[in-house]
Amino acid sequence: MKNGKRRIAAIVTAIGLALTALVATPAYAADGESYLGGGVATPAAISYGGFSGTYYTVNNVTKIKKVTHASKHYNGTSSNSKASYSSAKQSTLTAGLTYSTGGSASFNTVLAKLEGSSRLDLAASGSKTSSSTLSIDATIKPRKYVVVTAGNTEVTGKWKKNYCASGNAGLVVKASGTGKSHAIRETATVQCDLSQPKGSLAALAKSRYC
Predict the structure, then answer these.
(1) Which is deepest, 25, 64, 67, 146, by most CB within 10 Å?
(2) 34 contact partners, CB below 8 Å, separation of at least 6
(3) What 3-state DSSP class applies to 151?
C-alpha cells in the first residue's frame, strides 16, 4: 500500500511540474511595466506560475494612409508652371490612447508594441500633425490639374492593461482601449489624369480631390 501511495504522489508531482512549465512569464518593458509579445490576450483562468504584476497586450494593429493636407491647382497656360503651391489642412492626427474601460495606462508601453508591429517610428503621446498650410514645390503641365498633398501613415491597435495579483489569482483587465500614433509626414504631387500606385498617399489624394 505504501508503494502505491508513493507512486500516486510521484504522478501528481510530475503533472504539477508539467503544467508549471507551460506557463509563460511576461517579459518586462522598458518603463518598468511588462507586456507579452504576439498581441494575444491571455484567458483569465490561466495561472501565472508565481508572476504578479502588470503587463500589456496589443492586437488588431493596422496601418492606414491619411491625408492631412491637400489643395487642387490648375495650369491654364501653354507652358509648364513650376512653383511652390499651397496645401491646406484637411485633418489632424493625434497620438494617444482612448479608453473603453479603466482610465490609466502607459502610452509608452503601447507605443513600443505599435512600433514593433508596424515597423515604423511613431510620434509620442499628444503629438499632432501640422495645422498650418504647407508649401509644396510642384510642376504643373499645361492644361492639367494637380493636387499637392501631405499625409501620414496612421497606426492603430487595440490594447489591454492586464494585472495578475499572484501566481494563482488569474487575470484582471485593469484598462483597455485603442492606441493611435502616426509616422513621419510624406508629401506628393498628384497629376489628376495619371494613375497612382495602389495604397499610396497619391492614390488616396487622387480619389478624394481630383
Answers:
(1) 146
(2) 26, 27, 28, 53, 54, 55, 56
(3) strand
Please list the residues that pair with 1 across neighbouring strands. none
3-state secondary structure at position 136: strand
Residues whose CB falls within 8 Å of the CB of residue 1, separated by 6 or more in sequence, listed in order: none
Between CA 178 and CA 105 the distance in angstroms is 11
Q: Render 30-73 in DSSP notation, one character per residue.
A: TTS-EE-GGG-PPPTT---TT--EEEEEEEEEEEEEEEEEEEEE
Could you report the per-residue pLDDT of 40-68, keeping only the tens digit for each?
A: 333 343 445 556 788 899 999 999 999 99
Beta pairing partners, 144 = 75
Measured CA to CA, the distance from residue 20 to residue 14 in angstroms comes to 10
By the 10 Å C-beta count (0-12 exposed, 13-18 middle, 19+ buried), 178 is classed as: middle
For 64-97, the pLDDT digits (tens) are: 999 999 999 999 999 999 999 999 999 999 999 9
Determine the straight-line distance between the first and last CA of the chain, rounded to whole angstroms: 88
